[in-house]
Structures are given as C-alpha cells and as structure tokens.
C-alpha cells in the first residue's frame, strides 16, 4: 500500500511535466494508485488484489510502450525506474494475496498475530524505504527540478521583495 502511494506520487509528478497522451495516462495511473492506496490502508488489507495485479501488469506495459515509442523521451530515467519498482512491489503484494486464496473466496489461511509494536515498526520501515526511493525520484521530475531548493530564497526565478523609495523589502 505504501508502494502504491510512492507510485502515485511519482506518476502524477511525471504527468505534470509531460504533455499530450502520456500526461493523461500517467495522471490516470497516478491518481488510481493514490486512491487504491488510501482505500487499502483504510480497509487494513489489500483491496481487489486480482484487479490490482492485472492493472499493475497493464500499467507496466503501457509505460513501457510509452518509453519504447519515444513518447517519454523527455522524462528522466530515475522517476520512471522508481515508479516501475513501486508498481512491481504492488503487483507482487497483490499476487501474494491472490495466491493465498483470499481473492478466490476460499477460507483464508490463519495468520499469525502481529503485535502492535511490530506492525508500527513495519509501517515505519516501509515508509522510510518508500521515502528513500520517492524523494530523489520526485526531485528528478520536471516539477521537482523547478522547485525552489529548501533554505534558498530570492535566487534566480523567485519574486524579489517589493522596493519602495529605493529600500528593498520595505513597504509603506
């Protein structure tokens, strides 16, 4: 589910820097990933694993086709690779759930209880891994390249303070 959040963020950032058909496709995949992640996190389980597995495979194929045809020639490789890694992680999780028999309506195998601390540690660890991959990927997208670096204000491309009576930054 955290991988879907990472994929959704990176895909929507790629869409913001793309144009035409790739923009529509990437935005749709990104929004779908974000929506599914929120629904699954809320449910506390993987929602619609068979659909997610098929959609993930389709998303990888479509993005691969966009890259192969040159429609994504302007996109940086890191965000595309990161989004693909996230989508593969989501697909593997969905495949595991399908394999367990949950999606087929079979009686789920009993799961070993996980105490709250281990669950919290797993969530924190997963979030750290997603952040470690998503942060540089987002920075490498067009919107990321255009963002003002943290701690840097007043540089090229930013709005200068208002000048009144020859004194910068003072307004009366």
Please render the helix and strand layout as text.
Layout lengths: L1 H16 L2 H24 L5 H20 L8 H24 L15 H24 L2 H5 L16 E2 L2 E2 L4
Antiparallel strand pairs: 1-2
Helix pairs in contact: 1-2, 1-4, 1-5, 2-3, 3-4, 4-5
Keywords: Membrane, Transmembrane, Transmembrane helix
Which consecutive residue ranges, at least 5 long each, have pLDDT under 50?
none
Strand order of the largest sheet: 1-2
**Structural Rg:** 21 Å
Number of distinct beta strands = 2
Integer average pLDDT:
83
Helix/strand-derived category reads mainly alpha
Number of domains: 1
Helix content: 55-70%
Helix run count: 6
Shape: globular
Largest sheet: 2 strands, antiparallel
Would you mind describing this structure in some detail?
The chain has helices at residues 2-17, 20-43, 49-68, 77-100, 116-139, 142-146; strands at residues 163-164, 167-168. By secondary structure, the chain is mostly helical. The chain has one domain (2-106, 117-146). A two-stranded antiparallel ribbon has the order 1-2. A hairpin with a 2-residue loop joins strand 1 (163-164) and strand 2. Helix 1 packs antiparallel against helix 2 (20-43). The protein is globular and about 45 Å long. The protein starts with a helix and ends with a strand. The relative contact order is 0.14.
Task: Give structural attributes.
single chain, 172 residues, mainly alpha, two-stranded antiparallel sheet, 6 helices, 66% helix, globular
Structure, briefly:
The protein has 172 residues and is mostly helical. Helices cover 66% and strands 2% of the residues. The longest helix is centred in the first third of the chain and has 24 residues, at 20-43.
């Amino acid at each position: 589910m955290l991988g879907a959040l990472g994929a959704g963020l990176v895909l929507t950032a790629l869409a913001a820097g793309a144009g035409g058909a790739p923009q529509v496709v990437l935005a749709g995949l990104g929004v779908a990933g974000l929506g599914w992640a929120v629904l699954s996190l809320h449910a506390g389980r993987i929602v619609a694993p068979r659909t997610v597995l098929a959609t993930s495979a389709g998303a990888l194929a479509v993005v691969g086709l966009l890259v192969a045809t040159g429609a994504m020639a302007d996109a940086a490789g890191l965000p595309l690779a990161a989004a693909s890694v996230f989508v593969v992680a989501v697909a593997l999780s969905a495949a595991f759930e399908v394999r367990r028999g949950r999606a087929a309506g079979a009686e789920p195998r009993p799961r070993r209880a996980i105490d709250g601390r281990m669950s919290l540690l797993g969530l924190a660890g997963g979030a750290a891994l997603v952040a470690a991959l998503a942060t540089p990927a987002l920075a490498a997208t067009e919107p990321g390249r255009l963002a003002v670096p943290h701690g840097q204000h007043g540089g090229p491309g930013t709005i200068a303070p208002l000048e009144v009576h020859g004194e910068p930054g003072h307004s009366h």
